[in-house]
Amino acid sequence: MTVITIILLCATIAYVGHSTLMLIGLSRARFPRNITYEPKVSIIVAARDEAKNIGECLASLAQIDYPSHKFEVIVVDDNSADATPSIIASYLSARSNFRTMTAQPASGHLRGKANAIAQGIDIASGEIIMMTDADCIVSPSWVRGTVEQYNDTTGIVAGLTLLKYDDWFGGMQTIDWTYMLALASSTMALGNPLSCIGNNFTFRRAAYDEVGGYRNIKFSVTEDFALFNAMTRSGKWGSRYPIRKETLVLSKPCADVAALYRQKRRWGVGGKDMSVSGFAIGTVGFLLHALYLLFPFVGILWQVFAASFAVKMLCDYFVLRVPLKRTGRLADLRYMLLFEPYFILFVVLLPFAVFLGGAVVWKGRRY
Question: Would you give the distance in Å from CA 118 to the centre of its chain?
Fold first, then answer.
């Protein structure tokens, strides 16, 4: 048996261990419901050139099942060049708990979307801040299902976002999101919060103020991740990442490979501030997937390769099945076979794209 074959076996064993820990974490990502807790909630939506999406987002927010006097929606127009502002204005005119503003010029650490969100939070009156994106749809139970996950020591409650798709390309991406966010949920439940996603991200206003908000956080192209890190690393508040159908948010997939590359690269660049344990998890995946790509060229026994890949597929299946079952989306598993080769490629290529890819371009801005 060659040395490279032995390395593949070791990487496979490490991947099994990593997947086992994910399953343990997911089993712990269930928390008692605080059903008597009904705080004032402020929902922040930043929108830049979202004329195609903002109407559907606002329509879903209008259907939220929570006392209207106890939640407000603040839509921040991030200097859109399309019809976004007029769509917002026409929709909000008849809703007393919805309001809008236009983001003022950025300064200091406040750049891009972080600037828009920070200005929205400035005028918010809620005890709990909830964030989603202009291309997302929330469920009527989103607010109530989220706030009942808070207790006196909880500062952050994150939630699962999956994709609303109509073709195989979108289906493949939703499996990708499922795996990525299952990892975030499981590590948080194991006491090692690594990340969250900003379109289903909620926190106490007190926790935000204690870290100084976005004005006190170094700019990042993933502003949600930067804020999450600041609050979790302060050690003052607990965090939870339940996977529940009641708090599921739906987003839209990237339309093509170029858009997907830009999305992944932005997330990767922002993720350079990941903790050591996060990089360790990434290293296991990178090594295993790189060996799969090198298989035809480095003398790995094909029997070992086949066995390793079968084991990896089983691990991924059992991990993916947990969040998809809890959210009633087991049918998404039909795209898993498309996801696997994509998963291998992007895990191997992403580090090169992050460190060698130049500036990040997002929403018409360069960072």
Answer: 19
